[in-house]
Amino acid sequence: MNFDLDKMTLKELRDLRAKLDRAINSYEDRKRREALAAIEEAAREHGFNLSELTGAKPKRSGTVAPKYANPSDPTMTWTGRGRKPRWVQESLEGGKELDDLLI
């Protein structure tokens, strides 16, 4: 393909650049997937999986079970992670300990 860039309009040049960017990204993604597949196959041939060799931790999924519940409304729970809910703050300010709210 020969392009005479000097004869192209600005819009045509930008469209060409966008197409090139998409083609480059697609090529890189394809090559990355091929390389990963080859690495995983080599690891399997040696009796390992890739995460064992790289030390990568498996991704965790799911939810965290609640650890604390509101004594006046047990449907209000908290896992103990992140910001304390208002009912936890109010209980602590009222003299309770966090252990008092354990489920």
Automatic annotation (TrEMBL):
Pfam families: Histone_HNS
The protein's name in its UniProt record: H-NS histone family protein
Predominant place of localization: cytoplasm
Keywords linked to the UniProt accession: Cytoplasm, DNA-binding
Family: Belongs to the histone-like protein H-NS family.
Sequence intervals crossing the membrane: none
Domain DNA-binding protein H-NS-like C-terminal as annotated: residue spans: 58-103
Entries under InterPro entries matching the protein: H-NS_C_dom, H-NS_C_dom_sf
Region (Disordered): 50-90
Record's subcellular location: Cytoplasm, Nucleoid
